[in-house]
Amino acid sequence: MHGGVYVPVTETIRPNPYLIVPNRDVRTTGGNELTLVNPAYMTRLVGEILAREGYTVHIASLKVLRPGNAPDEWERAALQRFDKGSALEYSLTGSEGKQVFRYMEPLRTEAACLKCHAKQRYKVGDVRGGITIAFPYAPFERSIRADDRRTVAMHTISLVAALVVLFFLGLRITKLAGSLEESRRQIQTLEGILPMCASCKKIRKEDAVPSDPESWVPVDFYISGRTVAKISHGICPECAKTLYGWSEKNPTTTE
Fold first, then answer.
1. Distance, CA of 188 to CA of 183 (rounded, Å)
2. In this predicted model, what pLDDT tens digit does every residue of 129-153 receive, in sequence order?
3. What is the Cα–Cα distance from 83 to 89, expressed in whole angstroms?
């Protein structure tokens, strides 16, 4: 916003030899020596602080005043794409396990920039360079891999749970199918020709010896032994009249 700020000259903050402007260095009425720190110099100082945390900040340009701002191969390619309209550039560089994430945005010329860069024939709006931020990608890669492992574990657990549910559903369906098959068999048994005594109405068991008295069982016993039907007892009107002399006006039955 201000094009630069004045700071005291120290062992670490020295006058910028590449900043050729009037009143670059001044002395206060109290005798303190101050030097003008322009935006590029300030960015470089901030980059030195971030470098302690493993981050690299670098200003680069295809038209350099300070040799330290010369671009490397990756930055040069990014700057050339900025000239063609690219808004930003980023990529992973380096070998696996030692990869570095690099991000670069263009620095466009503003009116305050012309104070130092007018002699390079820049105009307001021109791309005069770019600023790169780079940092090791390994911590992020480890985090991503941990997330991937958690995702795979959750999917595996879900799959196993689904298979268990399907297994028990399969057992249930198999059991029901068996019950239906047994019911069908029983129905087919009842639908077949049943040997029945013409006198007492007992039914002969399957594959039983006709002459064996135990081969013949009551109808209700035969049906209840082959189906889920429960047999109850009553008396029809005709039998009630024949056996007990009950009239049709009083057709009482017992169960």
1. 8
2. 899 999 888 888 778 888 888 888 8
3. 12
